[in-house]
Structure formats: C-alpha cells, structure tokens
Amino acid sequence: MSQVTRTVRIGSAHGLHARPAKMFAQAAKDAAIPVTIAKGDAKPVNAASILGVISLGIDQGDEVTLTADGDGAEGVIDSLSELLATDHDAE
C-alpha cells in the first residue's frame, strides 16, 4: 500500500463552492480508496464528503493538501489535483 500526498492550488474563480465541490467529492468517492483534503492547519476531511469539502471554505488560490492511501494512489491524486487546479467557473 502506498500513501501519496500533494499540495494543490485551487483554480476555480469562486473556490470550491457547491458545483466544483460536488464534482471533486464524487471523483474522490469513485476512486474507491481513502482520500482526504485539508486546508492549512485544519484537520483533514474525507474528500468524498461534499459537506466536509464545503466546510473547509476553500477559495481561489488557496492551497490544499490531498492524501490518498492505497493501490493506485498516485493516479487518484493526479486526477483529483487536475480537477482542483481547473477553473470550473470559466466553462
């Protein structure tokens, strides 16, 4: 089992509000391995929990730390990082 941690800067112009948070949480849930997201020194939350993700109050330009634990963790972190770095409000 491997654990992968990566820091990502948020790209969405309005941060992780409902729509991008839902996309992110769904992708984390689909990963089928434990993934957490943390902002600053805050306690990490389950990345598959939309309420947990929204509760972090993540804004554009904030840095968050993703951690995935298990088989394929690197790929999971790659795809989730890309989701977070993309400006979904520009689409």
TrEMBL record:
Record PROSITE patterns: PTS_HPR_DOM
Where does it localize? Answer: Cytoplasm
Its domain of life reads Bacteria
Name all HPr domain ranges: 3-91
Protein keywords: Cytoplasm, Phosphotransferase system
Cross-referenced PANTHER family, in alphabetical order? PHOSPHOCARRIER PROTEIN HPR (PTHR33705), PHOSPHOCARRIER PROTEIN NPR (PTHR33705:SF2)
* Record organism: Microbacterium horticulturae
Which InterPro entries does UniProt cross-reference here? HPr (IPR050399), HPr-like (IPR000032), HPr-like_sf (IPR035895)
* SUPFAM superfamilies reported in the protein's UniProt record: HPr-like (SSF55594)
What protein am I looking at? HPr family phosphocarrier protein
